[in-house]
Design a protein that fits this description.
4-stranded mixed β-sheet, 2 domains, 3 helices, about 20% helix, 2,3-Dihydroxybiphenyl 1,2-Dioxygenase, domain 1, alpha/beta
């Protein structure tokens, strides 16, 4: 197939770039860099007047993907409140982890809240959903065998 060499990143809008970066770093993502974006090209791309953003790029340790965290300094981002896990649209980002309990413990000081319970699916996986910065939902999956 041509024209689609890879998926590059998933962008998440947050209200505190430093806190969100700390959260995803605690998860195990590796920072690649930060930048501030503004100007005519950004305004035209986003269809917003006077847009100014701070971004942080973080990559998976194995290099398989990246998360772009974006904080809008202007204009203000509306706060729709926590999105239910069954709402239409973007749902969650899933990460494979070695020890689900240890990861939850590591993320809790950074504001992670467990949604539901840690469950076991057959003899294959332990699974959990956690809500992190700006209400983003992460799924964690620990393969058992």
């Amino acid at each position: 197939m041509t024209g689609f060499p890879r998926m590059d990143n998933v962008a998440i809008v947050v209200d505190d770039l430093a806190a969100a970066t700390a959260f995803f770093t605690a998860l195990g993502l590796e920072p690649e860099g930060e930048a501030t974006l503004a100007g005519d090209v950004v305004d035209r791309l986003l269809a917003l007047d006077g847009a100014r953003t701070g971004i942080a790029m973080l990559r998976a340790p194995d290099g398989s993907g990246r998360i772009e965290l974006t904080e809008y300094h202007a204009p203000d981002s509306p706060d729709p409140g926590p999105t239910p896990v069954h709402a239409l649209g973007a749902h969650r980002v899933m990460f494979a982890v070695d020890d689900i309990a240890e990861v939850i413990d590591r993320l809790t000081p950074h504001g992670a809240e467990l949604i539901g319970e840690v469950v076991q699916y057959e003899d294959s996986y332990r699974l959990a959903y956690v809500r992190g910065p700006a209400g983003v939902v992460l799924a964690l999956a620990q393969q058992l065998s």
